[in-house]
Amino acid sequence: MTSPQPVIAVCGKGGVGKTAASALISRAMLDAGVRPLLLIDADPAGGLVSAMGERVENTLAGARARLVAAARGAGDAEKESLASQLDYLVLESLAERDGYSLLAMGRMEEKGCFCPANTLLREAIDLLVGPFAVVLIDAEAGLEQIARQVTRRVTRVVAVHDGSARSADTVGLILDMAPGLVSALGSRVDTPMGLDLPEGVEWLGAIPEDPELSRFDRERRSLWDLPAENPARLAAARIAERLLALG
Ligand SMILES: Nc1ncnc2c1ncn2[C@@H]1O[C@H](COP(=O)(O)OP(=O)(O)OP(=O)(O)O)[C@@H](O)[C@H]1O
Ligand SMILES: [Mg+2]
After folding, report:
1. What pLDDT digit, counting tens, does each position of 128-151 carry?
2. HEC string of the chain?
3. Average of pLDDT values for 217-237?
4. Is the pLDDT of residue 182 over 50?
């Protein structure tokens, strides 16, 4: 049996650098010829898609809203047949590009218990991963998506660590939830020294503080367009290599 492709979830506390890391790592993987990639922006507030300077027409949230509207007032049998349209709606939400596809979760109203938001994301991941060489998920801040097992297909959780005590605590909590799958990535720190990494968490490397990255973000320019010699981009390329070697 062949092993499943890497399904990588980039997690960590709010504002720690998940989206920037996801954007740079995915760019590096494409540059290394790894394709097709499935890139999932699982932040309801929007992350990876905008960091890449992209726009997507259809989000999972939009698909779900149409389904929920259709289910309103429907009987059980009709609801069941609507649920079977979910696959189609998920596929419709996938934006295909050259070498990669993008799936944006969008903001979902939790109203109505008919297909809860994170369940839908999980189903979508299950449905879609097949043909992709690597799947990379820019997760929302916090632990909700891990706790709800959105990440059940995930083979590696990249816990982003900015050197703060709270970031260290989050890495510890992530490890509790996904034992054996967690690697740490430094964001705006130089070394793993003094980071208080829990046992069993592998150090992938760090993306340094980078004023050019910060300026690109501020100016809403795609982080994919950072120059090839940009230090953050180069660091992400080494991290991508390590991730691919880990499988
Ligand atoms: N290596 C870096 N150097 C300089 N600025 C950075 C770096 N990484 C991230 N930033 C900046 O820090 C801010 C937060 O980064 P980012 O959006 O990647 O974090 P996040 O963890 O995805 O946040 P959220 O929890 O809101 O999704 C952004 O303004 C980004 O430009
Ligand atoms: Mg983000």
Report:
1. 888 999 999 999 887 777 766 666
2. CCCCCCEEEEEECCCCCHHHHHHHHHHHHHHCCCCCEEEEECCCCCCHHHHCCCCCCCCHHHHHHHHHHHHCCCCHHHHHHHHCCHHHHHHHCCEECCCEEEEECCCCCCCCCCCCHHHHHHHHHHHHCCCCCEEEEECCCECHHHHCCCCCCCCEEEEEECCCHHHHHHHHHHHHHCCCCEEEEEECCCCCCCCCCCCCCEEEEEECCCHHHHHHHHCCCCHHHCCCCCHHHHHHHHHHHHHHHHC
3. 97
4. yes
How far, in Å, from the CA of 92 to the mean position of ligand 1?
Answer: 30
Residue 127: half-sphere exposure toward Cβ, Cα within 13 Å: 18
In the chain the domains, ranked by start, together with CATH numbers, are: 7-56+99-109+116-246 (3.40.50.300)
Q: pLDDT confidence of 225, banded at 50, 70, 90?
A: very high
Identify the residue with better confidence: 238 or 58. Answer: 238
Q: Ligand 1: residues whose CB is within 6 Å? A: 12, 14-20, 43, 47, 141, 187-188, 207, 209-210, 213-214, 217, 232
Question: In sequence order, what are the residues at sequence separation of 6 or more whose Cβ sits closer than 8 angstroms to the Cβ of residue 153?
Answer: 4, 7, 122, 125, 126, 129, 135
Residue 1 has pLDDT above 80, yes or no: no
Ligand located closest to 47 CA: 2
Which atom of ligand 1 sits closest to the CA of residue 23? 18
Nearest ligand to the C-alpha of residue 21? 1
